């Protein structure tokens, strides 16, 4: 376990004995790099990402909480992605490494969202796999209600050559057009701006590229967002390079369609797992 400065922000790097490695910023508890054992970087991080307190970092796995997107009164994607989390623990075992970061409510959070909460982000890497788990507990005396997502920017060599499999038959919201559909294809290809929320995706998803593939599965995170800004939207994002959109595809498990309700004293967790296939 190594503490480091990552473009000016404090981070920790966990490395398993088999060489698998992940780097997590305290800013947003955001995973910004994952390299499986003997492999290559699997997360996209924009070359123009900004690394400043209060600003979201473009790439890696931002945590959207307690609101996904603009589906409510809070700032877009909530507020935990732009504040500093504490490192609770980090260690390596015989074939894994893990770290947990925590965030509790404080004056700043209560001014935005007037609730007591405790959030924990645990990253566990083994050879070819990374589990990212968000845990939330309600220490207050009123119910908590939230939506969330693990907004994973997966690296692609060339997004137009990638296919997303495992979505067939799912109901989805096409957020580019504002229309609802049922997925009829066995493979989704990314050839234009794509922003979809697939609901109740029970089966694993696969991101297939020529000569490599990644399996993506969720537990307690029933919905899956697929997002690529493509050329025009990307050009309006100052933290993306002109060709950056070709090197990424966001596939994000979340609890979006049905908010999570936590009674006083209750706990919840949701996990997304990435596996090199
Ligand atoms: O997850 C998809 C999405 O909600 C898109 O609509 C897009 O706006 C994206 O997130 C990125 O949001 P951001 O606030 O990080 O620019």
UniProtKB/TrEMBL annotation:
Protein name (Swiss-Prot/TrEMBL): Putative glucose-6-phosphate 1-epimerase
Reaction(s) the record says it catalyses: alpha-D-glucose 6-phosphate = beta-D-glucose 6-phosphate
Keyword Nucleus: no
Keywords annotated in UniProt: Isomerase
GO cellular component: cytoplasm
Active site, renumbered: 151, 252
EC number in record: 5.1.3.15
Entry annotated with the keyword Endoplasmic reticulum: no
An annotated Gene Ontology molecular function: carbohydrate binding
Top-level EC class: isomerase
Signal peptide boundaries: none
InterPro entries xref list: Aldose_1/G6P_1-epimerase, G6P_1-epimerase, Gal_mutarotase_sf_dom, GH-type_carb-bd
Protein's GO biological process: carbohydrate metabolic process
Family: Belongs to the glucose-6-phosphate 1-epimerase family.
